[in-house]
């Protein structure tokens, strides 16, 4: 099996891409790079069973309905809804609310700069679909929406204050913790880049989360939220230890 991970930004220079090749009792990071183009991501996704992308895959249903009504000049608001309640409902997707309840803080794709990155990923998803890849924003297709910091937290690893150049020491400690927890993962000489760049490190975590998603070891949207997740996207959080991502027996889905 091959999984990929993309830490997306508006510009290629701040975008990371990781590719991990999985075998029954080991895994190897075969590719890790920065300065990643849309074509790079699409190409990696087409060779992988699952690609984890750290970016919202859609916008809140209520936000779309609101701006559509606003464009037509016919906005109707519930009289009992306060300004703060309205803004929260429009700003966050259902998956964002679920992840917040789990103790993490996803950004608002409707009211934060990450919305610019989401425009980029929307084009990438279209390119993947045009190439024949099964794209489902709920995570059922080749693409899984991931949240690296939350994945690290779920795996019992440090997940705060490891970003930016000033936190290099924290990244070094985090890479060391990953090596200790999963000695079967060969970083293939890319460890220093993970320590240098949080974009590269997040791409690796995204590829690891993609493996969890491919094995069915992530929290999928509940049945009543599935259709909404196919429009808004759904953050897949791992629900098992990092150590369970490598298999002791034959890896039946390898490619």
From TrEMBL:
> Which InterPro entries does this one have?
DUF429
Origin superkingdom: Bacteria
Q: Name one Pfam family in it.
A: DUF429
Q: What is this protein called?
A: DUF429 domain-containing protein
- Name the species this protein comes from: Kineococcus radiotolerans (strain ATCC BAA-149 / DSM 14245 / SRS30216)
